[in-house]
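User: Can you predict the 3D structure for this chain?
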Amino acid sequence: MVEVGQEFNFFGKVLQKNDSTYETYPVNVLTEDLENVIVRINRDEDVSLNKIYYFETIATQFKEKVHFEVSKFEILTETDALEAKKEELLKLFYNYAPIITEEIRNDIEAVIKKLENKVIRDITEAIYKRFRDNFYLYPAATKFHHAYISGLAYHTHSMLKLAEGFLKVYPFLNEDLVNAGIILHDMCKIFEFDTYEGSEYTIRGKLLGHIAMGANLVDEVARDLGYSNEEETMLLEHIIISHHYYGNFGSPRKPNIAEALIIHFIDNIDSKTTVLGEELDLVGKGDLTSSIGVLERERYYKHKLSKE
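Assistant: Here is the predicted structure, written as structure tokens:
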């Protein structure tokens, strides 16, 4: 029990902001201990709804209730908290990918380090380093697949794992193009959503989409690196603009190189199978799932041999 005058420092998620005629205004916050508290913030300062902050406060009496007057606050992404702590808080307050971020980051960075073609490696590494932090926060969609925090990185990592098998079975595929194409194909989804919580599409996301922005980004970085006339640049751009295959799904071209076709197949496999697995988790053995949008609204039976 916190007493008046006691310091109370904590991480919390902003649930509601309220108007006030006082010098401070009340904000409803859910703490990391899952307690609802009211913090009071100076009128000339602001916090954003649905965001996690670190608060330093002092308990005060306000109309016979205990409020917490804020002396300092900082949004989670700008604090010096350890990455493990940030991930713990994100998983507590939001729907989060079923991953350990450090593990998939190590895997993805190992793939980039193994790229042998200098043009492909330099372009991929430059883009990855520029957007690395957001890449591990943003979802891959708002509702269709991997629609949760870190969904983009989870989807990309799964595709890289699937690609290992394709590369072993089909030796004519260029490993660098496949792996770099997978890492880059959805990178610009970080610009499609207004926040990493993935609540709404941005105007850029609606008018341009991640495919056009992705091809433009590769072109921009290639020009900066002096690679604008290299064939590898064109091939990476082709992979990005064709990975949805159909024009009504955003691709202006169909795949016309083997690596682009394989990436399209892998993307399709992972996006739909992940959703199927999540839907099967919601029902018991002997039951049918609800209709699944990404699978032509079919319902799938969870048989007695299914793994839990």
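Residues 94-280 form one domain. The mean pLDDT is 92.
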